[in-house]
Prior knowledge:
The protein has helices at residues 3-15, 18-25, 29-43, 59-85, 104-114, 198-204, 218-228, 268-282; strands at 48-51, 54-57, 90-96, 119-125, 141-145, 153-161, 163-168, 232-235, 244-248, 255-262. By secondary structure, it is α+β, with helices and mostly antiparallel strands. The strands form three sheets. A five-stranded mixed beta sheet has the order 4-3-5-10-6, with helices on one face. A hairpin with a 2-residue loop joins strand 1 (48-51) and strand 2. The radius of gyration is 22 Å and the shape is globular.
Amino acid sequence: MELRVLQYFVAVAEELHFGRAATRLHMSQPPLSRAIKRLEAELGATLFDRSSAGVALTAVGAVLLDEARDLLDRADRARVRVSAAAGTATLTVGLLAGGADRHAARLADAYRRRHPDVEVRIRETDLTDPTCGLHAGSVDVSLTRGPFDETGLAVRELRADPVGALLRSDDPLAGRATLTLADVADRRWFVFPEGTDPRWQSYWNGGQPRTGPVVRAVQECREAVRWNGTVGMTLLDDEPAQGLTVVPLTDMEPSRAVVAWSANDTNPLVRSFVRTAITTYRT
């Protein structure tokens, strides 16, 4: 059994969909299907039940999934330990400045327990770069939020968080239990600088072109609302500063917390970071 084929198997087992697994692996579906069939022939067992309703793991497949994850993890740890012994084990992580995340501390603890000899370098970016330096090549992996241009990147969703309108506490709409985008359609919003990823800009502007003060950082967004009475958007579970309030937006898609990395990166430190992030955020 090759580690590469086990990686294919784990992707299909986690996605339970050959098309999504192929996309995740950045390959076409036919060679992936052939690789899984060869693996089943090699093992002499059926790993997936395939039907018109979809794909499901068999009992044998569930056993192999546990073993495959363990084997891949141990292979990565072996590579990491060798790199650490050679003094070359470093990982650069990109974060959005001011984007407080209650899971990040648990992720840091979990990753340090797994790789105590790895030096982790943190690079924060402002709101003009939602990839946190990935497209620029200045980081290895990013903890950020979508949507953004995913060309050349691999992206896994960690969590989806509901959002709301950030308003002054004395705003006429501040006392509402909920709002829709139509309720704030005629208001000024904060906007990001020209050149910011249009997918990212559109999401935080509720899918419409807006006018208003230009901001680059989370704190600037809050202060734009405070000083100008504009509309902002924020996570519902973010604690608003004094004088501000958050009202749920019922017709806005949740904000996706994601981990992203270069699709061609084979660094075991990155793979381990991604697996640890997925486990941490879903626990």
